[in-house]
Amino acid sequence: xxxxxxxxxxxxxxxxxxxxxxxxxxxxxxxxxxxxxxxxxxxxxxxxxxxxxxxxxxxxxxxxxxxxxxxxxxxxxxxxxxxxxxxxxxxxxxxxxxxxxxxxxxx
Length: 107
What we know:
The chain is mostly helical. The chain contains two helices and no strands. 86% of the residues lie in helices and 0% in strands.
């Protein structure tokens, strides 16, 4: 607006407007490239985080599996030791478990 009249400033020419439009297009192109770069960075960061998460899960899973294997070996050793110490009791328990399994499988 012109300072003295309060009316819009009509002094801009068509070439000035075209120059402004060209500048706006150039600015939009720069912004588009920056947004694309930001998106690619975000995608690569997400992939990296997912990969690290998978690696951590794999490590924890392997540790848990090793722990379960160790526990199973310990239980197996205890069962073998108990059977060797008390074979009659072990035979009675096995017969009782077999009888219960047979009753349950009939139904």
